[in-house]
Design goal:
Length: 254
């Protein structure tokens, strides 16, 4: 459908070389977008580029550490120079340090906050001029169910994801007049390298997730292809400031 067609659009995906980010990049590529994959691991990004190019997309890798303030300006300039502009930004990069509050160091707190939410603010600010100039744009922010729930082993992660939801709403109201829609998706329990480690560190996590998830399974990166296309396309032009769970029903299960 033309409503979901991204031909000619340019998407920047932070953390787009694996997990949820690669799943979203895959969906954007299938819909016709050119994609800039942003990550620290050059070898991993090269593999992602090859996979996306096999889908027929134009793709580049941009090596960047999203915790560095100036990296976002360089990222935006590199993508715009290569493809002629920026239409879509997916703020997906994120980490977790699983420790109880009393055991979490101040530096660890800052690392999680800088990676998960400060980077999204800086990336959005860097891409905004290109979108404003074009009179349109889409920003997709990776939140989490931890913006809804608490967990004793995720104080910094949960705080960063709650902040991501509120950042989404602020950007949505600030930039609606520029033709830019900003929305947040909340991944549930998704089978990624990050959650594999979580299952190793949190006893019984796998069983509890399956017991509470109505879909009866962990999510896969492929489950994010559709939400990426919807929120990046004309189909969502009147949707902004929304917070959308992608969790197999976990968050609505009593």
């Amino acid at each position: 459908m033309k409503l979901f067609d991204l031909t000619g659009k340019v998407a920047v995906v932070t953390g787009g070389n694996g997990g949820i980010g690669l799943g979203m990049a895959r969906g954007l590529a299938r819909a016709g977008a050119s994609v800039a994959v942003v990550g620290r691991d050059a070898e991993k990004s090269a593999r992602a580029v090859s996979e996306l190019e096999a889908l027929g997309a134009e793709v580049i890798a941009i090596e960047a550490d999203v915790t560095e303030s100036d990296a976002h300006r360089r990222m935006a300039e590199a993508a715009a120079e290569r493809f002629g502009g920026i239409d879509v930004l997916v703020n997906n990069a994120g980490i977790n340090i699983r420790k109880r509050p009393e055991a979490l160091g101040e530096d660890e707190w800052r690392t999680v906050m800088d990676t998960n939410v400060t980077s999204a603010f800086l990336a959005s600010r860097a891409c905004h001029p290109f979108m404003k100039r074009a009179g349109r744009g889409k920003i997709l922010n990776n939140g989490s169910m931890m913006s809804i729930f608490g967990a004793p082993w995720a104080p910094a992660y949960a705080a960063s994801k709650g902040a991501m939801v509120q950042l989404t709403k602020s950007l949505a109201t600030a930039w609606a007049g520029d033709g830019i829609q900003v929305n947040c998706f909340l991944p549930g329990w998704i089978d990624t390298p990050l959650t594999i480690r979580g299952r190793q560190e949190v006893e019984g996590l796998h069983e509890r997730v399956l017991a509470r998830t109505p879909a009866g399974r962990w999510g896969e990166s492929e489950d994010f292809e559709g939400i990426a296309v919807f929120l990046a396309s004309r189909a969502s032009d009147f949707v902004t400031g929304a917070v959308i769970p992608v969790d197999g029903g976990f968050s609505v299960m009593g």
